[in-house]
Design goal:
Length: 360
Amino acid sequence: MQSKIAVVLAVSTALASSALAEPSQELIDAAKREGMLTTIALPHNWCNYGAVIQGFKDKYGLKVNELNPNAGSADELEAVKANRGNTGPQAPDVLDVGLSFGPAAKAQNLLQPYKVSTWDSIPDDAKDPEGYWYGDYYGVLGFAVNKDIFPEAPTSFEALKDSSYGSAVALQGDPRTGNSVMMAVYAAGVAEGGEPGEDAMNKGIRYFKTLQDNGNLVPVNGNAQNLAQGTTPIYFDWDYNLLAMRDELDGNPPVEVIVPSDAVIAGVYVQAISAYAPHPNAAKLWMEYLYSDEGQLKWLDGYCHPIRFNDMNERGIISKTMLDKLPPAQNYAKAVFPSLADQAAAKSAVAANWGTEMGQ
C-alpha cells in the first residue's frame, strides 16, 4: 500500500510539550527590525485569514503587505520567480499553496527551510523532512443533509445506497473536471475497500454507478440552493465549504454536515518561505504564529482544520463551543491524505472510466 498521511489522535507527552513552545526573543527582535511581512493569495474570507493576519499584526506590531489575495498556487510560484533579488514590496515572503506545489517549488529552489517550534506535532507525512514546506490546514470530504427532508441523517457511504435516499444524492459536477468531485468519488471507493490510487477510484465509480442504477443519484449538480429547495437534499463537498454553507442558511433549512464513518479522505494545503524573501525573519515569525495554538485556532474558526487539530484536541485546547460546530472529532482522527501519486493514478482512472461506466 502506498503511503498516506495518517493523522492520529493520540500524541506523546513530548509532542504535547513541544506544541507549547514560543518563538525566541531574538527572532521577534529581528523580525521587528525588518518591520514588514509580504503575503500573497490570502483572501480574508478564506480560512478566516482576515482574523489570522490581524492577530499577527496585533501580537507583533509588524505591517503586513498583502499581494493579490485571489491568486492561485501557480501564481504564487511565478511571483517568487519574477522577484528573485527584488527586495521591494512586490516580492512575497511566504506562500500558502496546494500540496503538489510544495515539492514542485522545492525542486525549483524557490523555498528556504525553516522548522517551527511546534514542528514535532505536525504529522511526519504532512511535511518535508528538511522543513522546506509543511501542511497548514486541511478539509475532508463530507456531505450535507437537508434535515427537513431527512431528520435522521445518514452517516456513511454505505447508508446512502438505501432506497430511502431515492433521488436525493448529488455530486457537485463532473469528477473529470473538478478536484473536489473527483475526491468524493475516490472517497466512496475507499469506503468500498479500494486500495490507494486507481483501485479506489474504479471502486468509487462503481459505487456511483450503483447509486445511479438504484435511482439514488440525482443528475443535477449539488449546491446550497438545490439543497435548500430539496432538489439535491444530500450533496458532497469539502467540509469547510459545507459548514460555511450551513451557517449561511442559518437553519432555513436545518443542515447537518456529515464526515462519513467509512472513509475520511482529506486534502491539505502547505506553507513555505520564499528562498528570496526580503523579510526572512518576519517570514519565520509568521510561521511561528500560524503553527502556534493561537494561529491554528483562528484557522479552525474559519472551518479549515489546522494540521495540529488532533494534538490540540488531545490537550483540551479547542473549546467545546467550537467542537460542537463540527462533526465528531473522532471522525477527523481517522483522516488519511492520498499521496500525489495516488491522486495522479485516480485522475487517470476517472478520465478513462467515468464516462464509459456512467454513460456520460
